């Protein structure tokens, strides 16, 4: 995990997060290992989504609740790796790689898994591609000397919130009706929202580059 500019998160200032981060800092846990664990959490979330296809009733509901849980554990890893690196002073030289690479893998695993779980893999992969694109534009901004743009409307925490809520409500839907309309809607929201986020960040970056070079009007 790197120690540069960081995504603004209100949860970083909560007491429970600070206590947990201090305990992990006191242990032999590295921020990079926490970042790597986020891929495991995402893989379990994606697998639960995927396995829900063809499962009916209570079994599907349990899998969707499991997927929601691991989506949130993925976010918890994303929160704690930065806190252990920065507040705990355990940042590592290869932190920038482990800060970004696991997140991209995690997005792909979750959204592709959800797509297969509703028998619409194309939609899942579209959500994954646009999610990765939002991060690409952000990192392109950094590579050109600009601050990271963490703006939405579908940044990482928003994507995970949508999928978590959809999975929990989808569990009720699966138990009562045996359909997956909510998860389908969630993937459309993520795909379109991430696409708009990439466009917005790209527009902001182009404007900033022109301004930096004295070309802004």
Describe this structure in words.
It is a single chain. This protein has 217 residues and is an all-alpha fold. The protein has one domain (10-212): Four Helix Bundle (Hemerythrin (Met), subunit A) (Up-down Bundle). It has helices spanning 15-26, 31-51, 57-86, 95-117, 121-143, 156-176, 181-212. Helix 2 (31-51) packs parallel to helix 4. The longest helix is centred in the last third of the chain and has 32 residues, at 181-212. The model has no long low-confidence stretch (mean pLDDT 92).
> What is the overall pLDDT average?
92
Rounded to the nearest angstrom, the radius of gyration is 18 Å
Largest sheet entry: none
Provide the CATH topology. Four Helix Bundle (Hemerythrin (Met), subunit A)
Helix and strand content put the structural class at mainly alpha
| Helix fraction bin | over 70%
Query: Shape from CA axes?
Result: globular
| Low-confidence blocks of residues | none
Number of domains: 1
């Amino acid at each position: 995990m790197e120690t540069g500019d960081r995504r603004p998160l209100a949860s970083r200032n909560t007491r429970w997060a600070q206590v947990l981060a201090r305990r992990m800092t006191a242990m032999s846990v590295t921020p990079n290992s926490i970042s790597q664990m986020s891929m495991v959490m995402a893989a379990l979330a994606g697998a639960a989504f995927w396995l829900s296809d063809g499962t009916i009733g209570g079994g599907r509901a349990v899998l969707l609740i499991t997927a929601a849980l691991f989506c949130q554990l993925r976010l918890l890893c994303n929160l704690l790796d930065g806190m252990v690196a920065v507040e705990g002073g355990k940042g590592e030289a290869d932190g920038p790689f482990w800060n970004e690479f696991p997140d991209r893998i995690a997005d792909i695993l979750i959204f592709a898994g959800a797509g297969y779980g509703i028998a619409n893999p194309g939609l899942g992969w579209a959500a994954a591609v646009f999610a990765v694109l939002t991060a690409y534009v952000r990192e392109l901004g950094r590579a050109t000397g600009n601050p990271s743009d963490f703006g939405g409307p579908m940044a990482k925490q928003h994507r995970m919130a949508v999928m978590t809520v959809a999975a929990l409500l989808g569990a009720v839907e699966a138990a009562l009706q045996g359909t997956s309309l909510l998860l389908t809607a969630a993937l459309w929201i993520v795909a379109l929202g991430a696409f708009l986020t990439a466009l917005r960040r790209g527009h902001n970056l182009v404007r900033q580059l022109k301004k930096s070079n004295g070309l802004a009007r």
